[in-house]
Hints:
Number of strands: 15
CATH class of the largest domain: Mainly Alpha
Radius of gyration: 22 Å
CATH topology of the largest domain: Glutathione S-transferase Yfyf (Class Pi), Chain A, domain 2
Distance between the termini: 27 Å
Amino acid sequence: xxxxxLELTNFRNYSSCRFEYSDGVNVVSGGNAQGKTNSAxxxxxxxxxxxxxxxxxxxxxxxxxxxxxxxxxxSSNYGDVSVSIDFFVDKNKIIKVNEVPVGKIGELLGNIxxxxxxxxxxxxxxxxxxxxxRFLDVALSQISRGYFYALQTYKKILAQRNNLLKNEDRAxxxxxxxxxxxxxxxxxxxxxxxxxxxxxxxxxxxxxxxxEVTGGGENLTVKGDYKYEGTEDDIYSQFLSAxxxxxxxxxxxxxxxxxxxxxxxxxxxxxxxxxxYGSQGQQRTASIALKLAETEIFREKFGEYPVLIxxxxxxxxxxxxxxxxxxxxKKMQTIITCTEPECVPNYQNYNNIEVxxxxxx
Length: 361
């Protein structure tokens, strides 16, 4: 997968700009607040339909303007594809794939695949379980639309079940709950099954990628909770039984206490919990290794790498780790943002793009 070009109109600090990317490594450099990360954000937006940065989508519209537009053209083993998103101050965004409007995010997913890293992704290591679940959900949603739709269904049913649990009429709860439990277990079984399979692939790839970046100096392991295992039907039965067993507890707490919405990943370096005891550098390297592992899973599934976006990934990595990282990613299209191109070893060999105040120099 290669992204050929990116056009930005009134997006963040860009009035009108066109990026041309090469295969291999692309280095986007410039001072702080000049637009490097904005261009990386736009690519990820085209891939997933949402921003890793904006709380409200309308924030991407340049101040004083009524609309914004991003458009990218990519090529893959299946041919070229164009994706555009129009944002408006006074109405919802419009997404088009090959100039044809799509009504659901699920129809956008999988057209341009990407893996995104920026300093905020350190939450994957440092913060709460929901950040690690988000990592799984973003990756799996690009790989499997069925997973994405199951996830949306699960969230809706979970909210309805939690509302029911808060009802003061216990007779109503016991009468209605079994119906919600069956629906929740069916959607949850699809999520759990696909997460289990994904983590089984993720763990060895993450260990290998981490070894490549660290030069074999450290060992990374990744494990899932694996509360429910087997086929999707096996998991459905196990999860449904767990929901039934926890009925009284759930009524007491007023929310659902079991299910994939409570999953977590155990990430260790040299056998030690990197979240609790790892240094900042170890945590950054571990999160990058997980992202690199994600690219390998894409290649395994689709026969080609996704676009890898490394936004400010070089800071806090020593020179040796920077060099090993660049040596590893040269085999796929990689877009790296940094304040100075010198942050990227041998940057002279790659496509260099310098931005200043929303313009390419």
